[in-house]
Structures
1.
Amino acid sequence: MTHGEVDDEGGEPPCMLELVCEECGRLNDEPESVVCGRCGAPLGRDFQNTP
């Protein structure tokens, strides 16, 4: 890749941070989850306010 080119390949998008449990650190891969699949702690997501 040369200077000025954009690399389209990459890792996970930064928006996945809301899927990380603050209590146990697990990355929850269920997109609609509001609680951690491992420890049950809230993920800090609120789908009640979305249209």
2.
Amino acid sequence: MTTTAFSTDSLHTIGVLGAGTMGHGIAQVFAQSGYTVHLVDNQQAQLETALKAVDRSLGKFVEKGKLTADQHSASLGRLHTHTDIEVFAGCDLVVEAITENETVKIDLFRKLDALCPAETLFASNTSAISLTRMAAATSRPDRFMGMHFMNPVPLMQLVELIRALQTSDETFNAIKSLSEQLGKTPIEVRDAPGFVSNRILMPMINEAIFTVYEGVAEAEAIDSVMTLGMNHPMGPLKLADMIGLDTCLFIMNVLHDGFKDPKYRPCPLLVQMVDAGYTGRKSGRGFYNYD
């Protein structure tokens, strides 16, 4: 399939699917950079929470002198919320940031594929799932790729750009240029389980959990070793709590299933904590307790 040449000049209106932490962060950076953004979630309450979070985040930039009050207001004015995906029919790019469930993602991309014009680009913020399989579920696999933002999106510099096997050079170059216009640093990687970021990060977190499981040290001690001794800004167990232990387990399972290598076996303690509902900050309890 041949893709008609295009550039970021043709990308004006951005759709973001999913108003969770990653979704509203992605919506914010696009709106802050001058793009019209349509943020869609099937829960109105989630959209309201997302708008408040974006407002707070922009306010912090104003306090630090990185934005003016007028820029704050203008950014919010470019961000529109909806509960119906029909609005994506008028978007030049749709970025998906929903739950890490391949079946759910593919089902939604099939719906978007039927809804959106053929020239609309699709991107997924997945942290581990195969872009090649998702792209193959659409009629525009050459216009499909991964944009893996880091959390918190407005602050973190990296965007991991993942080529599906089918991604065209035109699509990749347009998304790379777009990422740079957002003030991000795009890094190209190929489609493989966990890509680069989580293929390296998650086994480290999993090994830290094994050290708790085996009684080598308490969580606080393990995190202190890594922050004080390895100069990490945050210990791996505190980071796991922030990411969500259910997400960590999901990614470890993707690595284990994808590579068939026992070194990616999830720690039994991780499995047990997720089974208990102790998923980290969002549940109030993980390796640490949260109010």
3.
Amino acid sequence: MNTYIKGSYTNFLKINTPQMIEVDRLMTEEYHIELIQMMENAGRCLAILVKERFLDGDVSGKSIVVLAGTGGNGGGALVAARRLHNWGAKVRVFTTAPYERFTPIPAHQYTILKRMGVSIESETGMDKLIKPDAILDGIIGYSLKGNPRSSAATMIHWANNQNTPIVALDTPSGLDLNRGTLYEPAIRALATLTLAMPKMGLFASDAKSVVGELYVGDISVPPELYQEESLGLEPTNIFRYSDIIRIN
């Protein structure tokens, strides 16, 4: 059974990057829902979407490449890698930097994968890969500032040249979630799973060529949080039927 449903994005509130940063702050400081919990939900939703939408509900024996940065976006992708490995996929992870440069919570996810024996490499090993069945993009999230560079740019170019489904977490790497500015290079995703609420930048005219199918994943933000004075929002309960909602 599919774990996502189709709706219409015109029915959903769209938020900007400063508002999403405030959501993250309120989650941890006021509601005591920690980053590791949000990251786990994000990665679980990403793994489910890839399995159900692009791999016919069964990842056993499938080759999946996970591209991960050192921050929260990369951490969510590493959670998805763990889930997919547990379900029988042949997962290989490539990171933009070594373990020492990861922020603490994503580093925790990295350590779990290493203990499980999942392959984690730098981008220099990607050229030897045979085309995978799917690619997960967790390179850069809403912290993007200008054109992706160095290993991040190398990963993006490689992924775009594979002619295989790419599923982006929160945003295609290279797309600014706030203004919708498309930097170079940028992931050309077949689907994007954004988190909590749709972000304004995903609906910009330039974004249409890279976002693909757009989904929203539930990271367990309490409805009351959106009504806090610093946000003043009144969203609908969009996840009442499913953890993953398709909105275009």
4.
Amino acid sequence: MNSISKIIELINVFLVEIGELSFFGWRFLKESIKRPFELKECIRQCYYMGNRSLLLVAVTGFIIGLVFTLQSRPTLQEFGAVSWMPSMVSISIIREIGPIITALICAGRIGSGIGAELGSMRVTEQIDAMEVSGTNPFKYLVVTRILATTFMLPILVIFGDAIAIYGSYLVENIKGHVSFLLYYNQVFDSLEFGDLVPATIKTFFFGFAIGLVGCFKGYYCKKGTAGVGLAANSAVVFTSMLLFIIDFIAVFVTDIFYDL
């Protein structure tokens, strides 16, 4: 009975948190269309999140391109299909691997940072001081960060995809002596409008989820300074789960439109 009650309690806590997160997202939508607009802070957050994540995304994308090509090349050689490598790599990276890997990296880099930053502001009563002084802390702290992650993640994903494909080209150039022009001609010939648009659209939802969960965990941080680490950690875990759910829904919806 104790185990059943614990399971019921965990499910109850999970459902309550989902409801609170939904209300938090609805509040963001209402606050984001009200004046005044914190444009300068939003631009600063875009620069902070994008610039600080460029190197990590570039290194990760480059390694993904190298490893994916090195692992796939022997199998394609067995079937005499090495010429399909540019098409296979570009479609796989742009459709799925690039967006989800970049989003997971940003969840760890940006989501945890937002959770820790807002959590430390909450436990040191800086957010309370902003409310007392007449400033709207939700608009200044939360709305700007969610908008920044929503707008910057697609740019980071495109940048990471480009670096990954370039890493794949280097392997093909060394192993198969494929020229730059030939490789990229095959890449762009294989890509279609239906590959780029769904992959780009879902990155906006990825960015929104990262910002929303990170801000939610940090804004309602409790239990003193120990809660700051808990907020940062739970933001990464919760966001990672949410990213996979969003990705599944995006693939499912895209597949329906392809079948029509």
